[in-house]
Amino acid sequence: MDRGTTVLVFEAPLGSYLYRNALQLRERILREPLGLNVSAEELADDTMRQHFCAVDCGSVVGTVSLRPLDETTLHLKQMAVTAQRRATRIGSHLVAHVEHWGASAGFRLMIASARVEAEGFYIKHGYVREGGTFTEQTIPHVRLTKRLA
Hints:
Helix content is 29%, strand content 37%. With 149 residues, it is an alpha+beta fold. Helix 3 links the parallel strand 4 and strand 5 (109-115). It is globular, with a radius of gyration of 15 Å.
């Protein structure tokens, strides 16, 4: 990536060191700026998700999770990258990794609920907007989908 480092993506099993660091990152990036905390409902939902972390020099610098909606559809959620690393393609690396993971597991469709300001990122990666905006976690979101190869 940048500075000559290599960012690796790992699965982060629920309760593991990586998961706990990913949860802290999600809270700091996705909830604190809104004056919110990760809720008990989100933590319960985490038990039904596959979690992934981008790690650089031992630090979690990005995270994303997937939840199967049925045997062919995955829901991508909780995407967060540290502010200092957003311009280094870590988000792109995470998305490519989970899309490959999903396709390899037999899933054919990825759905993302994204903040409106992140819509361009997903469109750049082949996602298509479906429908209008809706409110989630007090801010506007859009639904985006992508067929997996």
